[in-house]
Each structure stands twice: as structure tokens, then as C-alpha cells.
Write a structure and sequence with these properties.
The complex is a heterotrimer. In chain A, 33% of the residues lie in helices and 12% in strands. Chain A is of the alpha+beta class. In chain B, helix 1 packs across helix 8, helix 5 packs across helix 7 and helix 7 packs antiparallel against helix 8. Classes of the chains: A alpha+beta, B mainly alpha, C alpha/beta. Chains in contact: A-B, A-C. At the A-C interface, helix 1, helix 2 and helix 3 of A face helix 3, helix 5, helix 6, helix 11 and helix 12 of C.
């Protein structure tokens, strides 16, 4: 296959970036998108040109390290797929492909397609956990959890923290990310005792970190590589109302 | 972490959703009232007067003003927040979701403009200054103007877009999400988004053609019909 | 740095006279050892814990759980990860599950049986006391993970579900669909986040550890490079924990993540930590084969597919007919033929070897000749499509995404791939390396899996090391230093270590050759796969040794590293890791060469029975090979830690 790549090149957060165009011959349809970039980078290094910076790690769609925009879509055109699992057979011969970093106010560009997503960790630090110490846990079977609740909790817990939802959101909001974590924990009895405190702190943090709010466009759901439902966001609101109209301070 | 306040965007969202649902209710009642136009000036004016003297309407009016103000302020604040969350824009834009979902600010702005005109044309002269006594006459006069009618129709097209997203979005914001009922709600929303503006537009056109029967005859497929 | 000075013909290694016996295994009967240890280990008071700083490198299962638990105890914890976030480590990719001796299924499981299965699975090349402790702790791991919100699969009654896994006779594996590793890692990550928020952990993402700093023979800090800016920084501590994972990525093509590397443990080795059994590398039988001339990694297809799948090749060599046109009588179900008792469910090492063998015999699938079929069509007929889709649908999706074909209508093509390294830094019972104050946890150490790891036990080991072992054992060391202040990072040792790190990076940059670092990595991987892979022989290993040395020389002559040391520079990161791989490869080869027996993953062709089964030589090789660095260009020194089996008797593993 022949591919024409327009790739966003940017030295740093405060340096203006621009598109560079690369022509690739002999692209194998069996390559993943990242393998195509690997091969291009090998060529660039041999030519003495700075290779394109992008991040990836597991390359099997679970670690959440990779991710950028392909033709305006987070992780590219294929549903439920990260870029590392997106193969070139889904593009046509001679196609021009535009590659841009994930953009959002909370995700400053570090280099080319590498962005800083540490704001997601900062949200998690505010309450994306159950405060139980090692050593104090009761027997695992002492609290029954319905099969349904466990399965739904899993659906939300499957978030890989890649940031595609933020990148796809017209508002750069992390609502799906936050909602998924809150939903995962609220569905389990173990997550109950801290739920009000959790939602308050996480929501406040999300805004303080520069993420926008949710306007329910559901672009996040459409681009989430784990296909997490916007039910997570409805649940996030529900948790918020619950915390808002309650006196108890946890 | 110190934030801009107690989950501000969620508070604004709730305000927008609750006031929005209330305003949809208002739209339905208003439309119901408008249909008296079909009954002619006598009935219409009488009904309007009846409404005006109803003490309950005072309460509703106050609520309406509050709802509009809260809804508009929430919308403006949310839009500003959301734009700032976007940061740098994409060079290659792919519209992942329907345009009206992303352009609530635009449809909202058009509706606001319409609201101002509408208040200036009917509400204030009739309700407050008393310049207008014969409301039916005022309506007939306004819609005799093709530009006014066009503006009115366009405004309600935008209202349709606004509603198409608003209904579903409001329930999502209220935390209502159900595998079976959410799709049903969504359908109801789309129905309302078409039905409500269609009702208003129908009456606008009715009044317009009533005042300008020659335009009706000009319509090629209607030529020959009286 | 290059291999100069190692003349061919000179000894490849030297042997220490004394056996390595200081493994700190507590006295008493096997089931009492850990209890005895806990009852007698010195404690550090809460007031004193505050005064100790512990560095944790790596945020996978072992690192994140260790950091969170030490923070909970009150230690000041400093955590480094080269990832952008502590939630990315490759623990996340584990699919199958985690073992625990809960006996919830009432099928006769016990701590003893889990212990026995693990030590037998490891082909009797692991330490009894460590493995028993692992089995003993396993139930607590499940309790804790449930308490912090890991959504394990459940039965309708609301209690936990189990399934069985490769080659064991009980159902003891807990799982969260096919993403158990992810859920466990996110659990540990959530606890880490909790302690970061509490201020008890200082977290440094995008920081790669490049050296251990030694003061008076103790590990007292690390040198790290901030990958975002390129700045080289010093951090001091009272103890350093390495939880940096395995080095399977040395083969370039492996199921490991792209960034997985050996740099942290290799630099520790160069500072004096012994390296245990470096050649013990697990090859997983069922990965998706390489599809094109350039490929960056291999993806695993869960072992569970072998429960219902049958593995075969066409009986005619080079048969190019599509699989559905090959009638059953023309298919060779070689595993079922060779191992009638276990059939397609033989352990990983045996399955991988058999697949390679038929491919080497010329029966591999065209066009590459390096693939066999894993066929679920019989199972579809027997159990119905719906059942098979329900069990494996997500794996079929994954297979389809990568290959463009969707099973079960077409058989999967599979081929073995490097998956896990049982070898790693040698540690004693306390998980401390031979450097005082330096610990190694999880896959980074060599400890519990012997010569072969059983499925669903890597997660168990990582979490047991982090949540339940290091919090106790580190106190034994720290309690000796109650009055010791945090070392000054202006200390000479810090300055020198930083200088060495900087010099090495500058040297990489200054080579100024023409070849990208990745190309050396690919070539190194090919050498190792060919000669230090699934089956090994002395001749091949010697050849590998000379090729590795030649490649390393070439690397230091011809590598091209663009960009600056003091900047974000992914090429430099890669080159630096590859330079360490090039050194480790040599040690792996020497270890494989010295172990003249076949055990677990380590199959030496010279040592097999007449039927082609591995021949273990317990009289000569029932020991852990712990290698000591002797300096640049000097042969490493071999220390043997004898493995004494008091509770179990080593038997020949038979799966026929």
C-alpha cells in the first residue's frame, strides 16, 4: 500500500506546531498503525531526521499508553480499538491520513504526538479508590455481590485511562473517565462508605485541572476504545445529587 | 484540591436541566394557547384576557422569568467553561456527533434573540405597557410581514434543534439512564423536537397566509385552490 | 563497555568455591517458617518509620502494591516509573487469572497443593520455603483485592467464581473476564493514588532509573533521568526496591510491552547484585505468529483456548490448501499423539517445544512455516457456537482485529512467543538482593517459579511480594539504621554515579553511527530466539555468544542516536536499554551454556531421554545459578545456591 501521512510535529508545549508530510511506499496491510510509524521512524533515523515522537507500550490495547487523532478521530476510525490495534488494512491504498495529538486544555503537548495526561491521575488521587488497608480485609466471600453488579462494575472498571474521551469531547471533559471510576466503585458494596466524599472531591478536581464540563454529546462514548457507556456519566450525576442533597459529611 | 466551587458545572447542569424541562412544559402550554388563533379574534382575545386575569398566572410568570434567567445564565456559564476546556482546536475536524448536540450555544443564542423580539412585539406591549389591547390584531399584523414570519419560522427550527438535544440531555443530567427507557425517552425527545416547533410554525404560516392569500395562490401546487 | 578483552578460549565464567547459603530461610517445618519469621522479625516503631525513606522503582503489581503498603505503614515512599502514569505497567496485560488456595469450590485444594503444583510446575528449580509462603499468602491477596473493589467474576449467589487453568486438577483461579491483570493492577494503582494524595508517597512518572547508588556497601539511592526534560537527578533513601519486571523484551519479538527492559536490574547487577538463572525464559505456546517482515511485538492468545481447541498441522508438508479443505484424516494432531494423557493441555514449556519441533520438521503452515492451527471447530460442533462464542468471543475479536480473520470458522494460527522471565535478580527469603538494602520484587526477581511458571501465578507472586512480604521483611533491614539520617545527595557516591550515567548516555550519543538502535535490538532478538530460545545446544550457544559480542561491538561503533541527552529523547531511551540488553544477552547465554541439563523451559538438546523428553540432572544441577558481576570484560562468577527439598521429592514431570 501507499500512504501519505500528515503528522503534527511540535517541539514542546509552548512552541507552535505544524504538519509535516511523509510519503510511505510498501506499507503492509498487516502492520498496525504504530508499526507503520515504527518503520517510518527507522527510515527517518537513517536519514538523520528527528523521528516522530509517540507513545505506546503494551501494543495489545490494554495499557492505555498509546493514542492520538487519526483523521480527526481518537484512536482512528475503528470502533472499540486503540491505535496499537488498528491495522493498515482498514485504510485504502493511496490514502492521505492526518495524525494529530490528543488535544485538550488539560493535556499539554510534550512532543509531537506525546501529550501529558497526568491530570487523569490527579483526578484519581482525589478519590478513585477504596480506603482499606492491607491486613484489614475480611474474607473475600463474606460480602456477597450480585453477579450483575460485579459484571456492571467490571464494565466500568475496564477503562484504560488513555484519554480518548477527553480528546474526543468538544469540551475536553473527563466526565466519562471520572464517571466510569465512580460507577465502578458505587456498584460494589465496598465502595459505599466513601461515595459522597469521592464524588465531591473528584468533580472539584476535574474542574480545577482545566477539564471542561459535560454537554452530553456522547462523543466520548463513540470513541472510547473500551466502549464504556455514557451511563457512567448519568451515574456520576446521580452520585453528585446524592452527595449534594445530603447532610452527612464523610 | 481547591476548585472553582462546589462542583460548579454539575450545579449549572442541574439548573439548566430543571429549568429546561419547565420551559418545555411552558412551550407546550403556550402552543395550546396559540391554537386559539384558529378560532378567530373573539375567542382568542377572550382566552388571552382570561389568562391575564387569572391570579395563578402571576406565580407562573415569576417562575418563568426565573427559569429563563437561570437557564440562560447556566447556558452561558457552561458554554464558557466548556470552550475553555477545549484548549487548542483540532486542525482536522471530524464531527463525531450530530451538529445540534455541539451547537447548543448557537441554537440557544438564536432562541434568546427570538425571545427578545417576541417580548418586544407581544408580551411587553400587551402585558405591561398596555399599548396593545387587541392581541389577535397584533399577531395578525406581525405575521402579515413575510420577514417577521421567516424569522419566526427559522427561530423555531433552531428551537427544534435545541430541543432535540435538550430533552435527552436533561434526563441524562438528572441521572436517568435505563437500557429500555432511555431509548424511549430519546424518541419522545425527538418527537417533541419536531412536534412543538411544527405546531408554532404551522400557526405562524396560517396567520401569514391568512394575511397574504396571494402568496398562497403563488404556490404552484396550490394554484387553483381558492 | 564493549565485550573487548574476552578472548575466545578463555574461561567464560568462574566458579565460587563456597556454595551460596545465606538465603535467610527461617528454621522450622515448612508450613511454620513464615509464621516463625513474622513472629521474630524486628519491628520498626511508627515514630521511626516516619524517619525512613524507601525508594520504589516500577509501578506494576509488585511496585504499586509495595509502595502503597509501605506508605500505609508510615514509611516515606518515593516512587519512580518510566511510564506517563503508574497505571500502565505490563502486569495490566495478564489475561487469565490469579491463583489462590481458597478451596471455595470444595474440590480438595489446599495451601499444600498450590505449593506442590507450583514447585512441580517449576520443575523443582525453585526454593521450597519461598513457594510455600507464596501459596500460604495467596488467600489473603484475594481478600484484599475484593476489599479494594476488584470486580472478580461471581456466581449468581453473589460469591466468587473460579475456573481451572493449565495442568492443575482443581479450580482455584480467580478472574475478571479476560482482564484479570488489568483489574488487579488498577486496584494496586488506586491504593498508590490514595497514598500519593495522603502525601505519604511522592510519585515521579516519566522518570527512568539508571543506577543504584551505593554508600559503604549499602544501596542508598538511585540516579534517575527525567524522560520529559532529560535532566539527570539524584534521590537518596534508606532502602531501594526494584519492581521493574522481566526482560523478555530482550528477544525484541515477545508478548512483553515495548518499553519493558532490563536496565534497572542490570545496573543493579553491575553494582554487585547477583543475577539468578538468567536463561530461564518462558515461551508461551499460543501467540499470534509474526505476520509481516516488520513486526513490533507478538500478542498472546489465552491459554484457555487449549481447553476446547485442538492443535494440528497438515500431514503433508507444505500443504497450501485452506484448512477447511483438509480432511480430518490428513491432519496431524501431534500433541494428542505425543501426550495422550494431557493432549492439548500440556504445560506451556512442553507445548511450545512440541510446536517448534513440528515446524522444524517442516510441517509448519505456509507461507512462513512458523505456525500451527489451533482449531475450535470440533468444539463448536460438540458444544454449539453460542457456548464457544461466550467463552472465547473476546479472544476471537482480538484475533480478528490483528489478523483480519475470525475464528472459530477458521482455525487460529498460533506460534510460541517469549512471554515471561523466571530468571531475575537473586534474592533471599526477605526478597533482598546481595546488595544490602536493595530489594527485588515480582518478575524482577528470580524467586518462585523455578524453571517454568504455571499459568495464573505471576499475578499472585507480584501482589504477594508487594502487599504481604516486603512490608514485613524491610523492617528487618531498616531496624538496624534507626539513627541513620537520609544520605546527602552531594555525597561522592551520588556524584560519581551520576557522572557514570551521564558519561554512558553521552557515549551513546557520540557514537554517531548510521544504524537506528531498534535494528540492533531486532538482530539481537533473532540471535537469542535462534540459539537461546525454546531449545538450546552447546554449539548454538557458543555461536550465539560470539554473535552477541560482535553485535555489541558493532552497536558501539555504528548506533545512531539523534537528539540531545538533556531533552525528551525516545531514541536515547531505546539505545540505552538496548545497550544493557546486549550485555545481559551474554550472561543469559553463558547461564544456558553452563546448565548441562534440561529443566522446565531450559531444554538442552544434548540432555534428553530416548523419547525426546527433557532430562533433568538433579545430582549436578539442583541449584540456583547466581551470577556475580566481576567488572568490565571479566567473566562473571557463578555462585550456586543448593536447592534442598525437605518436604517434596523431585519427580520426573510426566504428561504422557
Amino acid at each position: 500500500m501507499r500512504i501519505r501521512l500528515r503528522v503534527w510535529r511540535q517541539r514542546g508545549p509552548d512552541v507552535p506546531g505544524k504538519f509535516e508530510v511523509y510519503e510511505l511506499e510498501d506499507v503492509s496491510p498487516d502492520w498496525s498503525f504504530l508499526e507503520m510509524l515504527d518503520v517510518l521512524n527507522l527510515r527517518l533515523v537513517r536519514e538523520g531526521k528527528e523521528p516522530i515522537a509517540f507513545e505506546s507500550d503494551c501494543r495489545e490495547g490494554i495499557c492505555g499508553t498509546c493514542g492520538f487523532m487519526i483523521n480527526g478521530r481518537a484512536h482512528g476510525p475503528l470502533k472499540g480499538t486503540t491505535v496499537c490495534q488498528l491495522h493498515m488494512r482498514h485504510f485504502s491504498d493511496g490514502e492521505t491520513i492526518t495524525v494529530e495529538p490528543f488535544r485538550a486544555r488539560a493535556f499539554p503537548v510534550i512532543r509531537d504526538l506525546v501529550v501529558d495526561r497526568s491530570a487523569l491521575d490527579a483526578i484519581m488521587q482525589e478519590g478513585g479508590y477504596i480506603s482499606t488497608n492491607v491486613g484489614s480485609a475480611p474474607d473475600a466471600n463474606s460480602i456477597p455481590v450480585s453477579r450483575w453488579a460485579a459484571s456492571r462494575a467490571f464494565d466500568f472498571a475496564t477503562c484504560i485511562g488513555c484519554g480518548a474521551c477527553v480528546a474526543a469531547c468538544p469540551n475536553g471533559s473527563a466526565s466519562l473517565f471520572l464517571g466510569a471510576k465512580v460507577s465502578h466503585l458505587m456498584l460494589l458494596p465496598q465502595g459505599g462508605p466513601e461515595r459522597k466524599r469521592r464524588i465531591r472531591k473528584m468533580l472539584i478536581a476535574m474542574e480545577a485541572l482545566g477539564f471542561g464540563g459535560c454537554s452530553n454529546t456522547y462523543a466520548c462514548e463513540a470513541e472510547c476504545p473500551k466502549e464504556i457507556s455514557v451511563e457512567a456519566i448519568a451515574r456520576m450525576y446521580r452520585e453528585a445529587w446524592r452527595a449534594m442533597f445530603s447532610h452527612s459529611e464523610e | 484540591m481547591r476548585g472553582p466551587g462546589f462542583y460548579s458545572f454539575v450545579v449549572y447542569k442541574l439548573s439548566a436541566a430543571l429549568t429546561g424541562l419547565f420551559l418545555i412544559l411552558f412551550l407546550v402550554f403556550h402552543l395550546y394557547g396559540n391554537f386559539y388563533l384558529l378560532e378567530g379574534p373573539m375567542v382568542y382575545n377572550w382566552k388571552a384576557r382570561e389568562l391575564l386575569v387569572n391570579p395563578l398566572i402571576r406565580v407562573v410568570e415569576v417562575l418563568l422569568v426565573i427559569a429563563f434567567v437561570v437557564h440562560i445564565v447556566s447556558g452561558v456559564v457552561l458554554t464558557a467553561r466548556n470552550w475553555s476546556g477545549r484548549g487548542e482546536r483540532y486542525r482536522y475536524v471530524f464531527w463525531q456527533t450530530a451538529f445540534f448536540k455541539r451547537l447548543m450555544w448557537l441554537s440557544g443564542a438564536v432562541i434568546l434573540l427570538f425571545l427578545v423580539v417576541h417580548l418586544g412585539t407581544f408580551t411587553v406591549p400587551y402585558r405591561i405597557t398596555g399599548e396593545v389591547q387587541d392581541l389577535y390584531q397584533a399577531v395578525a399584523k406581525a405575521f402579515a410581514n413575510p420577514w417577521y414570519t421567516l424569522f419566526y419560522v427559522l427561530a423555531f427550527v433552531f428551537l427544534g434543534f435545541h430541543l432535540a438535544h435538550a430533552w435527552e440531555s436533561a434526563f441524562q443530567t438528572l441521572g436517568v439512564f435505563h437500557r429500555v427507557w432511555t431509548p424511549v425517552l430519546r424518541s419522545i425527545g425527538y418527537f417533541l423536537a419536531v412536534a412543538i416547533p411544527l405546531g408554532y410554525i404551522f400557526l405562524a404560516l396560517y396567520m401569514f397566509f391568512k394575511a397574504n392569500p396571494e402568496w398562497l395562490r403563488a404556490l404552484p401546487f396550490l394554484s387553483g385552490v381558492s | 563497555m564493549a565485550g573487548a578483552g574476552w578472548e575466545t578460549g578463555s574461561a567464560l565464567w568462574e566458579e565460587a568455591r563456597e556454595p551460596l547459603t545465606n538465603n535467610k530461610i527461617p528454621p522450622g517445618a515448612l508450613p511454620d517458617k513464615w509464621t516463625h519469621y513474622k513472629n521474630t522479625v524486628p519491628l520498626v516503631s511508627p515514630a521511626n518509620k516516619r524517619k525512613f525513606t524507601v525508594i520504589v522503582v516500577g509501578t506494576g503489581l509488585a511496585g504499586a502494591s509495595a509502595a502503597a503498603t509501605l506508605a500505609q505503614l508510615g514509611y516515606q515512599v518515593v516512587v519512580f516509573t518510566y511510564h506517563d502514569s503508574p497505571r500502565r505497567a505490563h502486569s495490566i496485560a495478564a489475561q487469565g487469572g490469579i491463583n489462590a488456595a481458597k478451596n471455595y469450590q470444595n474440590d480438595g485444594d489446599s495451601v499444600w497443593r498450590l505449593f506442590y503444583d507450583t514447585i512441580k510446575g517449576g520443575d523443582f528449580r525453585a526454593r521450597e520455603a519461598n513457594v510455600y509462603r507464596l501459596a500460604e499468602i495467596s488467600p489473603q491477596i484475594i481478600d484484599y483485592c475484593v476489599a479494594i473493589g476488584v470486580p472478580f467474576a461471581r456466581e449468581y449467589g453473589g460469591l466468587l467464581a473460579n475456573r481451572s487453568f493449565g495442568g492443575v486438577l482443581v479450580q482455584r483461579t480467580f478472574y475478571a473476564r479476560g482482564q484479570t491483570g488489568q483489574q488487579l493492577l488498577l486496584g494496586a494503582y488506586s491504593q498508590l493514588m490514595r497514598w500519593v494524595h495522603a502525601g505519604q508517597v511522592r510519585l515521579y512518572p516519566r522518570h527512568e532509573m539508571l543506577d543504584v547508588v551505593m554508600i559503604d556497601g549499602h544501596a542508598r539511592g538511585v540516579i534517575v533521568r527525567d524522560l520529559r526534560t532529560g535532566e539527570i537527578r539524584r534521590f537518596a533513601a534508606h532502602a531501594v526496591i526494584l519492581a521493574t519486571g522481566g526482560y523478555g523484551n530482550i528477544y525484541f519479538l515477545s508478548t512483553n510491552a515495548k518499553m519493558s527492559n532490563a536496565t534497572a536490574i542490570w545496573r543493579a547487577y553491575r553494582r554487585g547484585a547477583y543475577f539468578g538463572n538468567p536463561s530461564f525464559v518462558q515461551v508461551h505456546p499460543t501467540a499470534i505468529p509474526q505476520a509481516s517482515h516488520y513486526q513490533s511485538k507478538l500478542t498472546l492468545m489465552s491459554e484457555s483456548l487449549r481447553n476446547d481447541g485442538r492443535i494440528w498441522v497438515p500431514k503433508k508438508k507444505g500443504d497450501t490448501r485452506p484448512p477447511e479443505e483438509i480432511p480430518p484424516e490428513e491432519r496431524w494432531y501431534f500433541l494428542e499423539e505425543w501426550y495422550p494423557a494431557y493432549g492439548n493441555l500440556v504445560p506451556r514449556d512442553i507445548g511450545a517445544r512440541a510446536i517448534k519441533k513440528v515446524c522444524d520438521m517442516g510441517y509448519g503452515l505456509p507461507p512462513t512455516g512458523r505456525a500451527v492451527y489451533l482449531d475450535l471447530r470440533d468444539a463448536v460442533e460438540r458444544l454449539g457456537r453460542e457456548t464457544i462464542e461466550a467463552r472465547y468471543g473476546n479472544l476471537f475479536d482480538m484475533y480478528e482485529r490483528i489478523t483480519g480473520e475470525r475464528p472459530p470458522d477458521v482455525p487460529l494460527r498460533i506460534y510460541p512467543a517469549v512471554h515471561y522471565t523466571m530468571g531475575g535478580l537473586w534474592v533471599d527469603y526477605e526478597l533482598m538482593t546481595t546488595i544490602p538494602g536493595l530489594y527485588a520484587l515480582g518478575e524482577a526477581n528470580f524467586s518462585d517459579h523455578g524453571a517454568n511458571r504455571l499459568g495464573a501465578s505471576a499475578l499472585m507472586q507480584g501482589l504477594s511480594d508487594g502487599y504481604f512480604i516486603i512490608p514485613y521483611t524491610i523492617g528487618a533491614y531498616l531496624s538496624q539504621f534507626l539513627r541513620e539520617p537520609l544520605p546527602d545527595t552531594e555525597h561522592r557516591a551520588f556524584r560519581e554515579a551520576e557522572e557514570q550515567v551521564r558519561a554512558r548516555l553521552e557515549k551513546l550519543k557520540s557514537v554517531g553511527g548510521k544504524t537506528p538502535p531498534d535494528e540492533f535490538h531486532m538482530r539481537l532478538g533473532k540471535i537469542l530466539w535462534d540459539y537461546v530460545g525454546i531449545s538450546r545446544n552447546a554449539e548454538g550457544l557458543k555461536k550465539a555468544l560470539s554473535e552477541i559480542r560482535a553485535l555489541r561491538d558493532e552497536f558501539w561503533r555504528d548506533v545512531r542516536v539523534l537528539g540531545d541527552v538533556q531533552d525528551f529523547n525516545q531514541e536515547l531511551e531505546k539505545a540505552n536499554r538496548i545497550s544493557d540488553f546486549l550485555e545481559l544477552a551474554e550472561l543469559m547465554t553463558i547461564d544456558a551454556l553452563h546448565r548441562e541439563e534440561s529443566c522446565g523451559c531450559h531444554f538442552r538438546e544434548e540432555y534428553q531421554t530416548e523419547e525426546g523428553e527433557p532430562l533433568r540432572r538433579d545430582d549436578l544441577f539442583a541449584y540456583v545459578a547466581a551470577w556475580e558481576y566481576q567488572g568490565e570484560g571479566k567473566p562473571p562468577r557463578l555462585h550456586k545456591e543448593p536447592l534442598e527439598f525437605e518436604a517434596v521429592k523431585p519427580t520426573v514431570r510426566s504428561y504422557k
